[in-house]
Amino acid sequence: MFVKTKRKASYAAILAAGALLLSACGGETTASSTESAPAATSEFPTTGSGVVNLYNWTDYIDPAILEKFTAETGIEVILDVFDSNETLLAKLQSGATGYDVIMPSDYMVAQMIELGMLQNVDVASFPNGKNIAPEFMDVYFDPGRAYTAPYMYGSTGIACNTKLEPECENIKSWSDLFTGNFANVNALKDQVEIVSAALRATGTAAEDLCTTDTANYIAAEEILSGFKPAVIDNDGGNVRMITGQATIRTSWNGDTHRMKMENPDIIFIYPSEGLNFWSDHMAIPVGAPNLDNAKIFMNWMMDPANMAAASNFSGYNNAITGTSDLMDDELKSDPAVIVPAEFTSLLSTVPNCGEEARELYTQVFTTWLDSQ
Question: pTM here?
Fold first, then answer.
């Protein structure tokens, strides 16, 4: 049953040096980092042996970076991949215990801390913890960085091929996309992104995206009922956009940057109702078999040279100081990545909702998938 109450999620935005640096200081959560952080050791290990088992998003880190890590530390990286935060959570909840480093997004970090699934290793005390940008240190999901090290951050909007889709210039909003009956559309298979976009399109304000008011979700279901993408997935969309098999896609901005490098006809659209700002993070799950190696990997990645290389591959900006001069000029000049001033007010953090609202998101998303 739906309950007619409302709960609000807040957020804060910080503009620094002309680039967007949002300090995700908002969202509903009961998570906290009250557990005492371990004391920093006087000598942090930098080399080792054996393996580190990394569970990361698909196509989100350059294999050459992993090879460099092995060459410098003596630790082999074994990579496994997932396609959504919900897949990551389900995998660990099903009993998977072989991972040393995982890459959850901000709202999922909060949920995992609340569930007791992440280890407090006092990341801020790591030698390269000093490189974490101040804007990303006191974040709502991990105040003071006890559990997580930052990786990439970005936003979720619309990618459109201006050569193959003449209506690109007329797509200004989520509502335009959902009601436009366009051909060759692809969509992310992500319930938080799709449902929050539908809520925005039907008038729900950013601060109310965790509402439990049934009427909001009925409206979201209605607008999504006519949205029939040809493909709904999180993997493979870049290639389909680059080759023209798809002409429009709900898309992460870094993925759109990578598309544009291969096909300059592709643009990134900032929907007028607003869009989600998110950040991904490195964390160590409870039961990690190679704890020291996990710490070494996270610390190594927070070196500016290594994180800049990760940004250059992934197409996203990062939260490590000292990386800007090492990043590709095409990345630093792309308005999909470095948000133009006129669009910064449109961004708000991904809604980190309570259990009741999460269930409503799932219901709307499942109904939409089943209708395809």
Answer: 0.89
